[in-house]
Amino acid sequence: MVGVKNNRRAQYTQRVIQETVLSLLESKPINEISVTAVCAQADVNRTTFYRYYTDVYDCVESIEKAFVQSLHPLQGATPRQALEHLLTAFYEDKKLSNLVFVEGKTQLLERTQALMANVRPQPPMIEDYQGAYIGAGLQNILKKWVKDGMPETPRQLTQIIIDTILAKNLDSLRDEVW
User: Fold this and answer.
1) What is the rounded distance in angstroms from the CA atom of residue 130 to the CA atom of residue 117?
2) Distance from chain centroid for Cα 40
3) 1: pLDDT strictly greater than 50
4) How confident is the model at residue 19 (pLDDT cuts 50, 70, 90)?
């Protein structure tokens, strides 16, 4: 239906714009991506772009929100299942994973971390400092994984993360160093 904001044509146009932004993020930082460049590559005019987004950052925010909403089947999942589900979503959409590198310009890592914090059952009492430490570690592991081209499967990386959090390979060092 013409004139309806969420009709198939509008959804297609939004998807093309979003895919173009994600493609441009593969080779440029977000602050170097202009609306003009997006429009030229997506073959849409600026008026069309501004019908849906206020700027490139607004487009990225829309992509992030849709991604996080797609993860909501996490209710009732164990932390392991939730983590593997999240990693699988990134693994299946490699262009989207570029958003983890847009430091301070997107909220993707914070949004996914907040979503993971709501997964039940919660681990036994994790103090604030431990939670901050684990959260920062998870973010950096995810960044390294994406930067390295995602060589491990989501299941393998989930196990690596669990082993790291539990410091499984550090037991022998504790006796030697401390």
Assistant:
1) 13
2) 26
3) no
4) very high
